[in-house]
Design brief:
31% of the residues lie in helices and 19% in strands. By secondary structure, the chain is of the alpha/beta class. The protein has a single domain, classed as Vaccinia Virus protein VP39 (Rossmann fold). Strand 1, helix 2 and strand 2 form a beta-alpha-beta unit.
């Protein structure tokens, strides 16, 4: 593989695919500020109680994976990253009932970062993360867009610097091109131990809507665990 270009200033394209409905607008205006992660230099202070462990999900999509993680691991502080308004609204709508956008109870161990995940990684303390999740990311299939992929040598090094020794990076993709890319990029680095990819979702990994879409379309996802050395 020839040397890769550095990632661009931001990895994502559009933040909205269509006009927001009134309920979505209220969620972004009233619920999101109550969930927004705003203390990257001291991430443990962002949660209702100081968490025993700190996890980060990059690109939570519809939010079902993040919601399940937060509900099943109440001792963990989960920072969930997403820049697309529809994804943010999907997660927020599942957390509060309609009419309670400004007042409804919210999980104390889940916080949202609605900006580029790399910006967050650069400001987090070193060796603070116990787990990182990258579930069914945009594969950016065109060759000229490969530099936008989160699995990029520069970003791998950045993520590694924020993870504790022994911390896990869990990733999944159903795109054959991205699967080959992950295998090549992660096979060439020395910051993580790359375990063999699994062809079925391991026990304890919450399902996502993107996984369901992949199976419905006849695609086979792969699931990886990378252990920080």
């Amino acid at each position: 593989m020839p040397p890769l270009k550095p990632p661009p200033d931001r990895l994502y394209g559009r933040q909205r695919t269509h006009a927001l409905r009134p309920r979505q607008a209220r969620l972004l205006a009233e619920t999101l500020p109550r969930m927004r992660f705003a203390s990257p230099s001291d991430p443990w202070s962002a949660f209702a109680a100081p968490p025993a462990r700190l996890w980060l999900e990059v690109g939570f999509g519809g939010g079902e994976h993040a919601r399940t993680l937060a509900a099943n691991h109440t001792d963990v502080g989960l920072i969930a990253c997403e820049v697309f308004d529809q994804g943010l609204c999907s997660l927020l709508a599942a957390l509060v009932t309609e009419g309670a956008e400004a007042t409804g109870d919210l999980p104390g161990n889940l916080r949202i970062w609605d900006d580029d995940a790399r910006t967050l990684l650069r400001t987090l303390p070193e060796a603070c993360l116990d787990r990182l999740f990258l579930m069914f990311p945009d594969p950016w299939p065109k060759a000229r867009h490969a530099k936008r992929r989160f699995v990029h040598p520069d970003i791998v090094a950045l993520a590694a610097s924020r993870m504790k020794p022994g911390a896990e990076w869990r990733a999944a993709s159903d795109d054959p091109g991205y699967q080959a890319w992950v295998t090549e990029i992660m096979g060439a680095q020395s910051l993580f131990r790359m375990h063999p990819a699994a062809p079925s979702r391991p026990d304890g990994w919450p399902p996502t809507r993107y996984e369901a879409k992949a199976h419905a379309a006849g695609r086979t996802p792969l699931y990886w665990v990378f252990s920080r050395l």
